[in-house]
Amino acid sequence: MIKFDDSFMLECEEIDKDHAWLNQLAEDISAAIDEDRAEDCAELARRFVSLCKKHFGAEESLLKRAGYPDAQHHHEHHQSLYGKMETIVKLGEAAATNELARKSLKKEVFYLLMDDIINEDLSFKEFVHKMSKAQAKA
Ligand SMILES: [Fe+2]
Ligand SMILES: [Fe+2]
């Protein structure tokens, strides 16, 4: 499992809070599986996906407000993750009775998180950081 540490912080409170909360839910899913509470996975997976969608919307509107030049590209990246989110909901529903679904679910939630944060969000870290510094000075 990847350790969620300061290197994943974008230094933008609104976004970092969402990422930390998503990471917590991913860990809750993992714990439910390890502790033989896989019947909790359906609800946890639905919550994870619903927070992801909300987070993507909030992140996109923040990038637009900030005038981030690649906002459209980031929107498309988020869109490309919708299929994976549907898979996560289905795996959550199957987890109570299916060993393979439990194993896949554990991986998929962290992959999704890493796809969003490591692969893409860190690319606007500097931009967002500069913007919030400029706002603080104004
Ligand atoms: Fe993102
Ligand atoms: Fe994000």
TrEMBL record:
CDD domains: Hemerythrin. Pfam families: Hemerythrin (PF01814). Keywords: Iron, Metal-binding, Oxygen transport, Transport. Coiled coil: none annotated. The keyword NADP does not apply. InterPro entries: Haemerythrin_Fe_BS, Hemerythrin, Hemerythrin-like, Hemerythrin-like_sf, Hemerythrin_metal-bd. Residues 13-96 form the Hemerythrin-like domain. One of its GO terms (molecular function) is oxygen carrier activity. Gene3D superfamilies: Hemerythrin-like (1.20.120.50). Belongs to the hemerythrin family. This is Putative Hemerythrin-like metal-binding protein. It comes from Candidatus Terasakiella magnetica. The lineage of its organism: Bacteria, Pseudomonadati, Pseudomonadota, Alphaproteobacteria, Rhodospirillales.
